[in-house]
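Q: Got a minute? One more chain.
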Amino acid sequence: LPYMTEDLDSGERFKLLDYVGVPRTGADGSVFVRGGTVEHGEGLYRISLGADGRPAVELVASTGEPTQLVHLGTRFPQPFDLAGPAPLKWRMSRDNADIDLRITHRATGTFFSKKLHLFSESAGSPYLYGRGEFGITWAEVAAGLGADAPTGTYDWSYTAVPQNGVGPDLKASGSFTAGRNLATQHDTDRDGTPNLLARDAEGVLWNLGTEYDTARKSLVRDYDPLRIGGGWQGYDRIEMLGSVGHGPSDHIARDKDGVLWLYDVTGAGIQPRKRIGGGWNTYTQLTGGSDLDGDGRPDLVAVDKAGALWFYKNTGDVAAPFAARKKIGTGGWGIYNQITATGNTGGAAAGDLVARDKDGVLWLYLGKGDGTFAARKQVGGGWGAYTDTIGIGDGNHDGRPDLFAYGPNRTAYFYAGTGDYRKPFGPRVASPVLSGQPAYNHVL
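A: Always. Here it is, folded:
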């Protein structure tokens, strides 16, 4: 409720704050309260008599948080997978609100609408996913649409009415594209956020779930690392590939005899490894995750010892995941000591690659959509500081794939994709995903 005062002579009432906690009286007779106003936001306020004899309110220390409801963004990937388990989620500055949600398929005009009651004091609302975060499963949306939900562009909007009456109603809107069984570059559990795999010195492989922190503008850890298993020191190369079939992101591993193995990840977890074939020790570099030919599947590329670049098309069949190799670069690729598939980070026709030369300079190769690349473009120097550079997919849910880098002393950084080939990544932002963990000798 608003914090009010009343002039006992005139009966005139004044609103001091939109809401307050327990007031405390200071030594000078001033009153200090933790509260907020729509105009100035949350913080510690001092109430004292002003020069005109009326109560005066002063913000002593701000928390930086708004008092009124504020939309803080969406929490689902684009494109959104209609066949996946990840819900549609939105974030607000607080969650004590009633939501009128509407989702409309743009091409047909069919829509879903529902009132969602959120209660910060109760864990009973199925639509409350965390502090200030609400959402809904696609299964419920699809059931409300009354038919198989079509793919394409959806428009969403919601009106949030504060349950405590503080501040105006919040109105927010946006759109997203949706498909089915989408290739996921770095999502092993299909929750709509990237995962990292990391191998420690004992050969144990760990799965680290992430989420995007809008305040940090970086990735943070979603849950404690999950132990996949030991024995992974037997591989000299492990790469996240993206989905071969219709499940979560799969990974490949090359053993020291040059045999390549596929680890198919399904809803039931990681399946027993499948032998792809031998002779893969002819390659110095392997990377997967970019859809290079526009068929919706992430492909694999490799650099051989002569510096030639080879393209392996993803077939979508876990029994035979790659078509016969095709040479797409004749020599010259040997100057790079690391190549990374990034997805379509440059905004051109298809998935891209970044390559780091021996001087630590990073170069962007824009995919043409036929398995080949345009002439390289320099991204910048200083990338030699990292031991692993990972194309993690869309980590911040803005529809553009991002980059993650891991270096000595367990330092890690998030690079947001811009969608602009002239400057494909934003400034690096430190990430705590790997802090407090052992030093890993391989992160992917």
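A: The chain has a mean pLDDT of 89.
Q: Perfect, thanks.
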